[in-house]
Amino acid sequence: MNLIDIGANLSHDSFDADRDAVLQRACAAGVATIVVTGASREHSPKALALAQAHPGTLFATAGVHPHHAVEYTDECDAEMRELHTHPQVVAVGECGLDFFRDFSPRPAQRRAFERQLQLGADNRKPLFLHQRDAHDDFMAVMKNFDGRLGAAVVHCFTGTRKELFDYLDQDWYIGITGWLCDERRGLHLRELVKHIPAERLMIETDAPYLLPRTVKPSPSHRRNEPMYLAHIVEELARDRGEEVEATAAHTVATAQAFFRLPPA
After folding, report:
1. Which residues in the chain land under pLDDT 50?
2. Tens digit of pLDDT for each residue in 11-40?
3. Superfamily of domain 3-259 in the CATH hierarchy
4. 257 closest CA partner among 170, 150, 167
5. What are the residue boundaries of the structural domains of the chain, listed by start?
6. How far apart are CA 213 and CA 114, in angstroms?
7. What is the distance between the alpha carbons of residues 103 and 109, in angstroms, rounded to a whole number?
8. Which residues contact 49 (CB under 8 A, 6 or more apart)?
9. CB atoms within 10 A of CB 162
């Protein structure tokens, strides 16, 4: 089973001591390809460097998460555009809106989001999107770019039925994480994932965050890593009423087409 993790924050400092071992464990668990998330001015170049160091196995996104929206200056925009000249950078983002944390002022979030959508409109790369507690504003900003953008995935989907169908109505893709395995917050996803067409579904760990709570034994450090993608796809297949191999194959084919990845 060759899996593709479409979102792992492998540049996070929690991986500094054992990053090579993390990649080896992922490979042993069937994770053949990882898209390393770039989510800030600091970590987007690091994501590219990791992809360049592991050609054919790691790829990268480059963008600025709404938590860091105040970073998105003219200089930052120029840096992002330079990063996107590299073939290993396969998507614009992580970008979007987050009104749950509000770590950056909402006007700054909207400006950073719009500038990155403009970058996506200019280079026609896929979009790696974040939305939390900002659905109406998120949809309004995206609507302003109707017809100008390439493919888009709402990564780490945790939202409502209405949100899911709003995204699917736009032909956007959905990224499912270990949130599915959280009996406190993710129970509703068990039902919703049945409604995602196979050609719109992708899987991700969002490591080091969102360790699946159903992993046994749970590691004492609580750090998520890409090897647990195999556990997520097993849970996802069960909820969708599919064979694990079928769910895995569909998500791989979808990710390869979406990010324009070579065969693993």
Report:
1. none
2. 999 999 999 999 999 999 999 999 999 999
3. Metal-dependent hydrolases (3.20.20.140)
4. 150
5. 3-259
6. 35
7. 9
8. none
9. 9
